[in-house]
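Example 4.3 (complexes with small molecules)
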Amino acid sequence: MRVLVTGGAGFIGSHLCDALLGEGHSVICADNLLTGRMENIAHLSHEPRFEFLQQNVCRPFDCGKVEYVFHFASPASPDDYLEHGIETLQAGSLGSMNCLELARKYNARFLLASTSECYGDPLEHPQEETYWGHVNPVGPRSVYDEAKRFAEAITMAYHRYRKVDTRIVRIFNTYGPRLQINDGRVISNFMKQALLGEDLTVYGDGSQTRSFCYVSDEVAGILALSKAGEHDPTNIGNPAEFTILECAQVVLEVTGSSSKIRFEPLPQDDPKQRCPDISKAKQLLGWEPFIDLRAGLRMSLDYFKSAIQAIGAGA
Ligand code: NAD
Ligand code: UDP
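Answer. The structure with uridine-5'-diphosphate bound is encoded below.
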């Protein structure tokens, strides 16, 4: 197939490009480099089946005939989407519409990268796909949450009204090599702080929970979903749940760091608990993650060390 990956120069998108090339497809990566980096796809520069298109997907574009559109373009870390609020709303709305139009034009299948943030600060735990969420529509995080909820709505509308063959993946916190070192997410912050011997900054009292999925498990789940005939949203994440304080301790253990923990204020509307119910993915796709947090962090250690050296060298 000839496949389009928007946001393909980002963290998950670049791993998805690798996986799709590995399956024998040709890949066009469309990215405006707002939060992504050419380094993430530098290893593909001599790959004849890979093409990079510098493109803001919020403007209409046509990359020629494709058989599959994977729409991953959007700022994703809280620091990034709070800095680029309008661009985030545009990526979820205009960007999703342009990508769906492209899929409709070429009769291509379409997969939307959605998020566990659609559940907001959830009142049901763990989160099943049938839960509609608890989202502050006007708070600071709404630029991301509501953009993704709109993206899901327009994806379902293109499926219902325009007969586009669509899928929606709700991605839960994912980490691994190529996670941007300075994007403020908890894993990148803690790994950087631990390796530099700085205090680990735990927001609030650290009792809030997250469930962390290693990127190769996440991409395997996304690919499995892309081949299934399911149109309603599907959670893909690792259900092993950690408090943020436990996460800090695992990072200290894996890095062998003697950094201390420093408590800082909790950001507004920070979800108190998050854990995917993956029964649907298990049943539908025969998929489940198998890399636990300690193993995944060990597998990411060399990447984080070299990313820190690169910032040190001003790269
Ligand atoms: P990322 O910031 O590393 O990647 C996003 C990519 O999209 C970047 O390369 C960026 O330059 C590009 N982009 C942003 N706006 C664009 C635009 N208008 N036009 C073209 N390109 C644009 O983030 P990521 O973690 O790889 O996230 C990828 C996708 O997965 C996002 O849609 C995100 O919402 C979703 N997601 C990620 C996580 C996670 O834990 N990483 C969790 C839930 C959902
Ligand atoms: N967090 C933290 N210290 C940090 C960065 C994040 O305690 O240096 C917390 C944050 O408040 C949230 C959790 O870790 O409760 C996950 O944050 P992240 O930004 O990675 O993603 P989120 O799941 O909130 O989108």
